Amino acid sequence: MNVPLLDIKDLSITFKTRQGNVPALENISFHIKKGETVAVVGESGSGKSVTAAAILRILDKAGQIDHGKIMFSGMNLLEFSERYMLNIRGREISMIFQNPRAALNPIRSVGKQIEDIIRMHGPVTKKNLYEHAIAALNTVNISSPEHRYHQYPFELSGGMCQRVMIAMAISCRPSLLIADEPTTGLDVTTQANIMELIKTKSTELHMSTLLITHDLSMAAQYCDRIIVMHAGHIVEISTTDDLYKNPLHPYTKKLITATPSERGNVDDIEFIPGNLPNLLTESLNCRFSNRCEFVDEKCVNNKLLYTEVSPTHSVACWRAEENATA
User: Fold this and answer.
1) Long-range pairs, 56-59, Cβ under 8 A, ≥24
2) Interval 283-300: pLDDT, tens
3) pLDDT digits (tens, 9 = 90+) for 228-275
4) Residues 7 and 31 sit within 8 Å (Cβ to Cβ)
5) Is the dihedral of CA 326, 26, 37, 159 positive or negative?
6) DSSP of 209-262, one letter per residue?
């Protein structure tokens, strides 16, 4: 039996605020196999980045894991000490952040920052650090790496900073790479280059990749499976092809119709009505019910029904069968 590299089971997270407790994630479950590229998609505020932070155990102090498991290589990361997690972060699980210029240290050269990661996790001598840092810059196709090594983040473009972040993330050959909105703020051409680089390196290093994005078309282009999130719930999980051919959740359907077509015709876009619920004041069994045209008493009065349509396709909706033909 093949054990998934990452297996999240019934994870719930609450944030404590001055106004009250916010149930940011509620009973989410998904897995990632070795070598697989999986996307988590949804609007801002759906819980995508919170999920990534929970995996790495870098939640904000206000965040509290109520229950659940985060299994990585068969071990529950929630049971380990912070000291143990320091060895996991960077070596086994790495993360690319959405604002690389802010994530990098502004008063330290990028070469030295790459060396810091290698020194902490890699079996290298102090004498060989420079060579390894240059090799890491070369790996992500940064020109003149010997010159770039001495530069600071403010001297580099956004795309170049993101390449540096990728170099840092993969320098110790992690098993899992988490890319949190890795193309935010970049022009279209640079976005494509960065995504191609991530995909290429994932394949070369046999890494599993968790891509967090609001861009469904990007997820469809680069990922094997897609997880759709809405307001802290996972509403649908499917292979990419099946999700587009047979979307079962009303939210998934609306995300697809809200995605620009390849023709770039703005008239084809259908905007999603309504807003995410206020989780501080609204307690809903289905958090999409206030925006759903198919809502009925079942949806309002009963907890979410998770249905496994096939071994690779599941949906959280009481009316999934009706929606399949709607």
Assistant:
1) 56/85, 56/88, 56/89, 56/93, 56/95, 56/178, 57/82, 57/85, 58/89, 59/13
2) 899 999 999 988 988 888
3) 999 999 999 999 999 999 999 999 999 998 887 654 566 667 788 888
4) yes
5) positive
6) EEEEES-HHHHHHH-SEEEEEETTEEEEEEEHHHHHHS--SHHHHHHHHTSPPT
